[in-house]
Design goal:
With about 300 residues, this protein is α+β, with helices and mostly antiparallel strands. The protein has helices spanning about 5, 35-45, 55-65, 70-85, 100-120, 140-155, 175-180, 200-205, 210-230, 235-250, 265-290; strands at about 55, 85-90, 95-100, 130-135, 155-160, 165, 185-190, 295. It has a 4-stranded antiparallel beta sheet. The chain has a 4-stranded antiparallel beta sheet with strand order 5-6-4-7, with helices on one face. α2 (about 35-45) crosses α5 (about 100-120) and α9 (about 210-230) runs antiparallel to α10. The longest helix is centred in the C-terminal third of the chain and has 26 residues, at about 265-290.
Amino acid sequence: MADDDILDTSDSDTSGRSGSGDASGGDPDGPPLRPQSLMLAFFGNHVLDEGDLCVYSGSIIDVLGRVGVGEQAVRSTLTRMVNRGLLRRQREGRRMYFGLTPQATRVLEDGRIRIWQKGAVNDDWDGAWTLLGFSLPESWQRQRHDLRSRLAWSGFGALYSGLWVAPGKVHVAGLVAELGLADHVKIFHAQADEATDIGLMIRDTWDLESIAARYVSFDKRWTAHLDAGSGDDPIGTRLRLVSEWLWTIRTDPRLPARHLPPEWPARPAQETFRRVAAQTERPAHRMADRLLETTPPRQKTGAGPGLS
């Protein structure tokens, strides 16, 4: 299962949810956000840095309800995520609690680096590129899809059909081995010859217009939020903020800034994201301390089908 399949926010998938519209918190201009992506953002916001904790399902239902996901959608999403190895469940009396698995922890830590450490603007590119060539049997459609998904999440674009390229020195041998494709893939680190028009290559390889449009849309929505004031639901606001930012940056390979069009919109969008994040951080955590019922995990967790 590819990381970007786990974090994909391109399909609303809100079956069983009460109300109408998508799960974007009532904003018709916002991107459609899948309950699973919102769930992972919830655990990333309020569990990842708190140690090994399990959260009561009722608390999760409360928080995700604040961004438009109904109770039945939350319950079915929890079940699916347990089945996919992303969450573990633990019964305490009549109540069910959910915690992160090592797989989900790895995904969230990778997302945290992407969101909070690397940033959306690549000002320090050293001229290096990573090239990855592959040739898979025609019948390996699933393997091809998984490889392309993982490469896209890692910042690669298709230079040619079986040759992908990413800025910088990207360590992808591990993900190739994880997919069982090491014998079918070749990886190189190189610099472009001076005869190569890097700007043209970037425009031919990545859909800059689509990437830029996501940043412009994000900046417009969240600047309006700042202008409107902080509001009274910081936990819901921060959950939607992080989920929408991940949706915005997931197709951006962090291309070298000096080879992008003037006034590339990632920079102002990132500044807006960080302003709203700073505004909501402490209030959201204070609210989480009041709302979330948690328990330490036992050595062995239950796997019963019910959710309470």
